[in-house]
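User: I'm curious whether this sequence folds into something compact or stays loose and floppy. Could you predict its structure so I can see for myself?
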Amino acid sequence: MGFLAGFGFSLITPSVAKAVISTTIREKRAVSMGFTQTGFGIGGVLGASFLPFLGNILGWRITIMLTAVFILLIGPLIFKLYQEKNYIKNIIDTPENQGEAQLSLRYHILSFFKNKSLFRLCVLGIIFGISESSALSHFVIFLSEDLDIPKVMAGVGFATLHLGGMIGLIICGLFSDRFYQTDRRKSLFIIEFSTGIAFLFIGFMLIHPSKGLAVVFISSFILGFFVLGWPGVYLTFVGESAGTNKAGLATGFALLMIRIGMLIAPTIFGYIADIQGHYQYSWLLFGLFIAISSIFLLR
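Assistant: Here's the prediction. I'll summarize afterward.
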């Protein structure tokens, strides 16, 4: 059942990305994608807040069944409200694109792997997965043990990081749409390079660890702004680079690369901290790696 749930969940982002690319004008795509990604965060907060409460009252079996029924009701509603053909006919309006839309899945997969620039862009997702998962997995422990912040305040700092991420999704999208819609690579480079700088700054905080809570919370917000604010711009760039017909395929492959980064990063990040007895070198080494990777992969 867990496999089926994970399989269904993995279909959401590629479908949403293709829908945004298909239905939104170029000048508003990144911010629209950012808004869709904030839905994951909002849904996660609501689910974490209310489902345990309902579980204690109704029992977990009934709570899960009610959640499943709610999801099943949302599906037909989306199908009714979202009419893709009315939008796509305004985008795929050339004979070449109309012919390509009818080609086989095998053709689209092969053409995707032959596009070296797009393939490299999808592989870049590993770096974003590394930055996000390493920060999220260890941030509370870092605040409570390395900076000696009370656990309650460490939890507030973690919430502040997520708040920065939700705002970052929208602001980064607006920034890309307003200034770099014709070359989103530049906005993506700024986001990733800034993520590396944020990691370095957090690492340097340990040189003088007696920071006030205000500095900690501001730093948490800035870190979350970049560490969690990239998906809107990145998925828009992937979808636009692939084109409407292959946006879902490219986004799915990019998500696979992101998950690979998320899988390997927390262990290495924590292993470095275990060796040194603190997280300073973890932040500094990962920050350098992220910043340098942005230069080589987005040049």
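Summary: The radius of gyration is 21 Å. Confidence is low (pLDDT under 50) at residues 86-99.
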